[in-house]
Amino acid sequence: MSTTTLDRVIGTARRSPTFAVGFGVIMVFAFLAAFADVIAPLPPTLSHPYDTLRPPGTGAFILGTDGNGMDVLSRVIHGARYAFGIALPAGAIMAVVGIPLGLIAGWRGGWVDEVLLRVLDVLRAFPTIILALAIVAATGQGFLNVILVVGFLDSPIFARIVRAEVLALRNATFVRAAVAAGNPEWRVLLVHILPNAILGATAQLPLRMAWAVRISATLAFIGIGVQAPAPEWGAMIRQGAEYVISGEWWVALFPGLALIALVLGLNLTGDGLSDLLDPKRRATGK
Questions:
Q1: Is the backbone of residue 126 left (phi > 0), alpha (psi -120 to 50) or beta?
Q2: Which DSSP letter does residue 198 get?
Q3: Which PANTHER family does the annotation name (predicted)?
Q4: Domains and their CATH numbers in the chain
Protein backbone atom coordinates (compact mmCIF):
# COMPACT_ATOMS: atom_id res chain seq x y z
CA MET A 1 0.00 0.00 0.00
CA SER A 2 1.48 3.34 -1.07
CA THR A 3 1.94 6.23 1.37
CA THR A 4 -0.73 8.28 -0.41
CA THR A 5 -3.27 5.47 -0.21
CA LEU A 6 -2.43 4.85 3.44
CA ASP A 7 -2.89 8.55 4.21
CA ARG A 8 -6.31 8.49 2.53
CA VAL A 9 -7.35 5.44 4.54
CA ILE A 10 -6.22 7.06 7.80
CA GLY A 11 -7.93 10.32 6.84
CA THR A 12 -11.19 8.51 6.09
CA ALA A 13 -11.01 6.66 9.41
CA ARG A 14 -10.49 9.94 11.26
CA ARG A 15 -13.38 11.67 9.51
CA SER A 16 -15.75 8.80 10.20
CA PRO A 17 -14.69 6.20 12.79
CA THR A 18 -18.15 4.68 12.39
CA PHE A 19 -17.43 3.92 8.73
CA ALA A 20 -13.97 2.54 9.57
CA VAL A 21 -15.31 0.12 12.19
CA GLY A 22 -18.23 -1.01 10.04
CA PHE A 23 -16.10 -1.47 6.95
CA GLY A 24 -13.55 -3.42 8.99
CA VAL A 25 -16.26 -5.82 10.17
CA ILE A 26 -17.47 -6.30 6.59
CA MET A 27 -13.92 -7.02 5.41
CA VAL A 28 -13.50 -9.70 8.09
CA PHE A 29 -16.65 -11.49 6.95
CA ALA A 30 -15.71 -10.99 3.29
CA PHE A 31 -12.37 -12.66 4.03
CA LEU A 32 -14.14 -15.57 5.72
CA ALA A 33 -16.52 -15.92 2.76
CA ALA A 34 -13.74 -15.80 0.16
CA PHE A 35 -11.47 -18.31 1.90
CA ALA A 36 -14.04 -20.44 3.71
CA ASP A 37 -12.75 -23.65 2.13
CA VAL A 38 -9.27 -22.93 3.50
CA ILE A 39 -10.19 -21.47 6.89
CA ALA A 40 -12.97 -23.87 7.91
CA PRO A 41 -11.51 -26.90 9.70
CA LEU A 42 -14.12 -29.29 8.27
CA PRO A 43 -16.60 -29.42 5.37
CA PRO A 44 -19.78 -27.60 6.50
CA THR A 45 -22.15 -30.47 5.72
CA LEU A 46 -19.93 -33.33 6.92
CA SER A 47 -21.87 -35.26 9.54
CA HIS A 48 -20.28 -37.05 12.50
CA PRO A 49 -23.05 -39.39 13.75
CA TYR A 50 -21.17 -40.24 16.95
CA ASP A 51 -20.35 -36.62 17.80
CA THR A 52 -23.77 -34.96 17.88
CA LEU A 53 -24.29 -31.93 20.14
CA ARG A 54 -20.72 -31.84 21.38
CA PRO A 55 -20.11 -28.68 23.48
CA PRO A 56 -17.54 -26.07 22.41
CA GLY A 57 -13.93 -27.04 22.96
CA THR A 58 -14.54 -30.77 22.56
CA GLY A 59 -11.66 -32.25 20.60
CA ALA A 60 -11.47 -30.76 17.10
CA PHE A 61 -14.85 -29.02 17.45
CA ILE A 62 -13.93 -25.53 18.66
CA LEU A 63 -17.55 -24.28 18.66
CA GLY A 64 -19.12 -27.70 19.17
CA THR A 65 -21.40 -29.67 16.85
CA ASP A 66 -25.10 -29.49 16.00
CA GLY A 67 -27.81 -32.12 16.15
CA ASN A 68 -26.49 -33.78 12.99
CA GLY A 69 -22.92 -33.90 14.20
CA MET A 70 -21.80 -31.07 11.87
CA ASP A 71 -19.05 -28.70 12.99
CA VAL A 72 -20.64 -25.39 14.06
CA LEU A 73 -17.50 -23.32 13.38
CA SER A 74 -17.21 -24.58 9.81
CA ARG A 75 -20.88 -23.91 9.17
CA VAL A 76 -20.70 -20.38 10.62
CA ILE A 77 -17.71 -19.57 8.40
CA HIS A 78 -19.40 -20.93 5.27
CA GLY A 79 -22.58 -19.09 6.27
CA ALA A 80 -20.81 -15.84 5.38
CA ARG A 81 -20.96 -16.95 1.75
CA TYR A 82 -24.75 -17.24 1.88
CA ALA A 83 -25.02 -13.85 3.58
CA PHE A 84 -22.94 -12.09 0.92
CA GLY A 85 -24.46 -14.26 -1.79
CA ILE A 86 -27.85 -12.74 -0.95
CA ALA A 87 -26.83 -9.22 0.14
CA LEU A 88 -24.66 -8.32 -2.86
CA PRO A 89 -26.96 -9.37 -5.73
CA ALA A 90 -30.05 -8.17 -3.86
CA GLY A 91 -28.39 -4.79 -3.34
CA ALA A 92 -27.50 -4.67 -7.04
CA ILE A 93 -31.13 -5.38 -7.98
CA MET A 94 -32.37 -2.66 -5.63
CA ALA A 95 -30.04 -0.11 -7.24
CA VAL A 96 -30.51 -1.23 -10.87
CA VAL A 97 -34.31 -1.16 -10.58
CA GLY A 98 -34.81 1.75 -8.19
CA ILE A 99 -32.30 4.33 -9.44
CA PRO A 100 -33.56 4.50 -13.07
CA LEU A 101 -37.17 4.70 -11.85
CA GLY A 102 -36.25 7.56 -9.53
CA LEU A 103 -34.41 9.37 -12.34
CA ILE A 104 -37.35 9.08 -14.72
CA ALA A 105 -39.99 10.02 -12.14
CA GLY A 106 -38.08 13.05 -10.89
CA TRP A 107 -37.09 14.32 -14.33
CA ARG A 108 -40.34 13.74 -16.20
CA GLY A 109 -42.74 14.75 -13.46
CA GLY A 110 -46.46 14.97 -14.27
CA TRP A 111 -48.43 11.79 -14.85
CA VAL A 112 -45.28 9.67 -15.24
CA ASP A 113 -44.19 10.67 -11.74
CA GLU A 114 -47.67 10.07 -10.31
CA VAL A 115 -48.06 6.61 -11.86
CA LEU A 116 -44.61 5.45 -10.73
CA LEU A 117 -45.15 6.80 -7.22
CA ARG A 118 -48.51 5.06 -6.86
CA VAL A 119 -47.02 1.75 -8.00
CA LEU A 120 -44.17 2.17 -5.49
CA ASP A 121 -46.63 3.08 -2.75
CA VAL A 122 -48.62 -0.09 -3.37
CA LEU A 123 -45.44 -2.13 -3.09
CA ARG A 124 -44.45 -0.47 0.18
CA ALA A 125 -47.96 -0.59 1.67
CA PHE A 126 -47.71 -4.28 2.59
CA PRO A 127 -45.58 -5.42 5.56
CA THR A 128 -42.32 -6.40 3.89
CA ILE A 129 -41.69 -9.65 5.71
CA ILE A 130 -45.24 -10.90 5.10
CA LEU A 131 -45.09 -9.98 1.41
CA ALA A 132 -41.67 -11.62 1.05
CA LEU A 133 -42.92 -14.73 2.83
CA ALA A 134 -45.97 -14.98 0.54
CA ILE A 135 -43.99 -14.46 -2.68
CA VAL A 136 -41.22 -16.91 -1.78
CA ALA A 137 -43.79 -19.49 -0.67
CA ALA A 138 -45.62 -19.08 -4.00
CA THR A 139 -42.57 -19.01 -6.29
CA GLY A 140 -40.42 -21.57 -4.50
CA GLN A 141 -37.75 -21.62 -1.81
CA GLY A 142 -34.75 -21.52 -4.13
CA PHE A 143 -31.75 -19.30 -3.43
CA LEU A 144 -32.38 -17.26 -6.59
CA ASN A 145 -36.02 -16.63 -5.67
CA VAL A 146 -35.02 -15.20 -2.28
CA ILE A 147 -32.51 -12.84 -3.94
CA LEU A 148 -35.04 -11.62 -6.52
CA VAL A 149 -37.82 -11.09 -3.98
CA VAL A 150 -35.63 -9.22 -1.50
CA GLY A 151 -34.08 -7.08 -4.26
CA PHE A 152 -37.33 -6.04 -5.92
CA LEU A 153 -39.18 -5.37 -2.65
CA ASP A 154 -36.61 -2.79 -1.53
CA SER A 155 -36.09 -1.04 -4.88
CA PRO A 156 -38.83 1.59 -4.15
CA ILE A 157 -36.64 3.06 -1.40
CA PHE A 158 -33.87 3.80 -3.90
CA ALA A 159 -36.41 5.18 -6.39
CA ARG A 160 -37.78 7.64 -3.83
CA ILE A 161 -34.33 8.77 -2.66
CA VAL A 162 -33.11 9.42 -6.22
CA ARG A 163 -36.40 11.05 -7.22
CA ALA A 164 -36.13 13.53 -4.34
CA GLU A 165 -32.57 14.41 -5.37
CA VAL A 166 -33.56 14.85 -9.03
CA LEU A 167 -36.44 17.17 -8.07
CA ALA A 168 -33.94 19.33 -6.18
CA LEU A 169 -31.38 19.29 -9.00
CA ARG A 170 -33.37 19.60 -12.21
CA ASN A 171 -33.71 23.38 -11.88
CA ALA A 172 -30.10 23.89 -10.79
CA THR A 173 -27.95 26.29 -12.80
CA PHE A 174 -25.54 23.63 -14.09
CA VAL A 175 -28.46 21.47 -15.31
CA ARG A 176 -30.09 24.39 -17.10
CA ALA A 177 -26.73 25.23 -18.69
CA ALA A 178 -26.34 21.63 -19.89
CA VAL A 179 -29.82 21.71 -21.46
CA ALA A 180 -29.18 25.12 -23.05
CA ALA A 181 -25.92 23.81 -24.52
CA GLY A 182 -27.94 21.28 -26.51
CA ASN A 183 -27.10 18.11 -24.57
CA PRO A 184 -29.57 15.29 -25.23
CA GLU A 185 -31.82 14.31 -22.36
CA TRP A 186 -30.04 11.03 -21.67
CA ARG A 187 -26.70 12.84 -21.34
CA VAL A 188 -28.13 15.44 -18.96
CA LEU A 189 -29.53 12.65 -16.78
CA LEU A 190 -26.52 10.33 -16.82
CA VAL A 191 -23.65 12.82 -16.86
CA HIS A 192 -24.93 15.86 -14.98
CA ILE A 193 -27.73 14.70 -12.66
CA LEU A 194 -27.01 11.06 -11.80
CA PRO A 195 -23.54 11.58 -10.20
CA ASN A 196 -25.07 14.18 -7.86
CA ALA A 197 -28.35 12.34 -7.22
CA ILE A 198 -26.77 8.99 -6.42
CA LEU A 199 -24.97 10.01 -3.23
CA GLY A 200 -27.97 9.35 -0.98
CA ALA A 201 -28.59 5.98 -2.63
CA THR A 202 -24.91 5.07 -2.17
CA ALA A 203 -25.11 5.71 1.56
CA GLN A 204 -28.38 3.75 1.74
CA LEU A 205 -26.99 0.66 -0.02
CA PRO A 206 -25.15 -0.93 2.96
CA LEU A 207 -28.22 -0.34 5.15
CA ARG A 208 -30.48 -2.11 2.68
CA MET A 209 -27.95 -4.94 2.29
CA ALA A 210 -28.16 -5.38 6.05
CA TRP A 211 -31.94 -5.54 5.65
CA ALA A 212 -31.50 -8.20 2.94
CA VAL A 213 -29.34 -10.32 5.25
CA ARG A 214 -31.95 -10.02 8.03
CA ILE A 215 -34.88 -10.85 5.77
CA SER A 216 -33.17 -13.86 4.20
CA ALA A 217 -32.24 -15.16 7.67
CA THR A 218 -35.81 -14.59 8.86
CA LEU A 219 -37.23 -16.49 5.89
CA ALA A 220 -34.86 -19.37 6.54
CA PHE A 221 -35.71 -19.35 10.26
CA ILE A 222 -39.43 -19.75 9.61
CA GLY A 223 -38.77 -22.48 7.05
CA ILE A 224 -39.39 -20.56 3.81
CA GLY A 225 -35.93 -19.47 2.62
CA VAL A 226 -32.69 -21.42 2.28
CA GLN A 227 -33.06 -24.74 4.05
CA ALA A 228 -30.77 -27.07 6.00
CA PRO A 229 -28.34 -28.70 5.57
CA ALA A 230 -27.13 -25.56 3.76
CA PRO A 231 -24.97 -23.57 6.23
CA GLU A 232 -27.19 -20.49 6.24
CA TRP A 233 -27.28 -18.61 9.53
CA GLY A 234 -31.07 -18.30 9.75
CA ALA A 235 -31.52 -22.02 9.08
CA MET A 236 -28.83 -22.82 11.66
CA ILE A 237 -30.55 -20.67 14.29
CA ARG A 238 -33.85 -22.41 13.55
CA GLN A 239 -32.21 -25.82 13.93
CA GLY A 240 -30.50 -24.78 17.15
CA ALA A 241 -33.54 -23.15 18.74
CA GLU A 242 -35.02 -26.52 19.68
CA TYR A 243 -31.88 -27.42 21.62
CA VAL A 244 -31.66 -24.25 23.71
CA ILE A 245 -34.18 -25.52 26.26
CA SER A 246 -32.22 -28.72 26.79
CA GLY A 247 -28.97 -26.77 27.31
CA GLU A 248 -27.24 -27.06 23.93
CA TRP A 249 -27.09 -23.26 23.49
CA TRP A 250 -24.09 -23.14 21.16
CA VAL A 251 -25.94 -24.49 18.12
CA ALA A 252 -28.03 -21.31 17.80
CA LEU A 253 -25.78 -18.81 19.60
CA PHE A 254 -22.78 -18.68 17.28
CA PRO A 255 -24.64 -18.25 13.97
CA GLY A 256 -26.81 -15.67 15.74
CA LEU A 257 -23.73 -13.71 16.84
CA ALA A 258 -22.32 -13.87 13.30
CA LEU A 259 -25.62 -12.55 11.90
CA ILE A 260 -25.70 -9.69 14.42
CA ALA A 261 -22.06 -8.76 13.74
CA LEU A 262 -22.46 -8.59 9.95
CA VAL A 263 -25.72 -6.64 10.13
CA LEU A 264 -24.12 -4.24 12.62
CA GLY A 265 -21.10 -3.82 10.34
CA LEU A 266 -23.29 -3.02 7.34
CA ASN A 267 -25.37 -0.54 9.35
CA LEU A 268 -22.28 1.22 10.69
CA THR A 269 -20.86 1.43 7.18
CA GLY A 270 -24.07 2.99 5.90
CA ASP A 271 -24.14 5.52 8.73
CA GLY A 272 -20.49 6.35 8.13
CA LEU A 273 -21.05 6.81 4.41
CA SER A 274 -23.87 9.24 5.17
CA ASP A 275 -21.39 11.33 7.15
CA LEU A 276 -18.64 11.11 4.53
CA LEU A 277 -20.95 11.99 1.63
CA ASP A 278 -22.70 14.84 3.46
CA PRO A 279 -21.79 17.99 1.48
CA LYS A 280 -21.82 20.14 4.64
CA ARG A 281 -19.37 17.87 6.43
CA ARG A 282 -17.13 17.67 3.35
CA ALA A 283 -17.16 21.46 3.00
CA THR A 284 -16.10 22.00 6.62
CA GLY A 285 -13.69 19.06 6.59
CA LYS A 286 -15.17 17.60 9.78
A1: beta
A2: S
A3: D,D-DIPEPTIDE TRANSPORT SYSTEM PERMEASE PROTEIN DDPC-RELATED (PTHR43386:SF1), OLIGOPEPTIDE TRANSPORT SYSTEM PERMEASE PROTEIN APPC (PTHR43386)
A4: 81-284 (1.10.3720.10)
